[in-house]
Amino acid sequence: MDPGGSTTVRLRLRNTGDVVDEYRFEAVGSLAPWTVVEPQLLRLYPGTTGSVDLTFAPPRTPDATAGPNAYAVRITPTEHPEATTVPEGNLTITPFTEVRAELVPPTVKGRFRGRPKLAVDNLGNTKVTASVSGSDNGDQLSYDIHPSNVQIEPGRAAFVKTTLKPQQIIWFGSKESRPYTLAVQRSGVTPLDVEGTYIQRGFLPRWLATFLGIFMALAITFVMLWIAYKPQVRSAATEKLEQAGISTLAPSPSLSPEAPKAPSSDAAAPSIPAADESKAAGGGGAGGGGSKKEETKAPEKTAATAVKKLAAQDPGGRHICYRAFVSGKGWTDAACDGQTAGTVGQETPLKAVNIAVSGTKGTTSRAYVPNPGSADDEGHYPDPFSNAADGIDNYVGSTKKDAPNLLGFSISVDGGAGNVCQNAHVHVDAWLGLQCDEPGAGYAFTYAGAHKNDSWIEAFQLTVA
């Protein structure tokens, strides 16, 4: 059967006993959530036969695994519960393919390059293999795509990093908009086109070019006037001497007097104070007891340090940087805009997370930790929300020695200034796939991580748009 539809199987039952009995029916196995048994209770006299209908309705989602799927029905007699039987069957679910792609962010800005990310989601129930290529009108951009080929399991997502480079640099003038298209191509299927925009900024603004032109013109004019105007300088002193009858000729040389004699060797030399003697002897000398320079510790490079650098390079853009406190290892280096923070597959849980943003009016976060003894075996939020403005570090979790593992964390950018997307890698699982809050919804949150007490988050990726 096709996912999203329904089909019915009839089960016949005969009472071979010698008493009237009631039989209860219960669907078991992986298809049980999508199976309805009608009726669930059947009363039969000895030697009579009855039937029940099993209706299967698997949804059109990646959970409906393509191929043969075993199912079973547990039949329990009321009078003889020890005679329970479980007949089995097989349901083959047909494969279907559904791929969705999204640019994060759809618009990037830069003078020399832009770095958008393409999120490709496999919403079907079979593995998808696809290649990614870029194009635009007039070949105004070049594309560096990594990886250019992806394989995506059902219900998972793949991130493709793209670097856009303009063929010509705008040295002076205003910014220009350059539309482009990234195509997700699969064998035998029409390519899925995702459109984006690269806004190329000028290297120098137009007003600066005008200012430099005027400045050069004034400088050339000043130099030409300086060369053309030569002031005549005359000495009035010579004229005054001539009027007074004084000769201006140089005096004739006279006999040189006897040269003075050098002092005798036994003449007393001038005394030098002790302090001056030490200076004359070697200017302080090596090992003279000079003070040592105090060693200064380099400041810690937090998420705010990294996001401020991005904000300086791209003042009008939106960026998010983050790092993870890994159990037994400490803080990782800061990662930004979709890079991975933490470890994957090393059984090392995270204890705390440090986040900072720019261009989003701040961020709000909250840690989710285990709650031992809970009725549903799920964690809880022990602390209130933590807020931080743009360029300020926001911390959730704890770095203490006995701090609990992070099951996950909630995050949102403030004031409806954008939206945040996350992808988390959870213990005894894989990457959970791209999840985003709703753009413009104010304090709508997205959650990264697991929920059960016996799991934890190992790594994560964050982007803002």
Automatic annotation (TrEMBL):
**Swiss-Prot/TrEMBL keywords:** Membrane, Transmembrane, Transmembrane helix
Q: Which residues cross the membrane?
A: 207-229
Asked if Membrane is a keyword of the record, the answer is: yes
User: Is tRNA processing found in the keyword set?
Assistant: no
What is the top-level taxon of the source organism?
Answer: Bacteria
For this protein, the record's InterPro entries field holds:
ChW
Q: Where is the composition biased (Low complexity)?
A: 250-275
Annotated region Disordered: the residues are 248-304
What are the Basic and acidic residues biased-composition ranges? 291-300
**Spans of biased composition, class Gly residues?**
281-290
**Which named protein is this?**
Hydrogenase expression protein
Q: What organism does the record attribute this protein to?
A: Streptomyces aurantiacus
Taxonomic lineage: Bacteria, Bacillati, Actinomycetota, Actinomycetes, Kitasatosporales
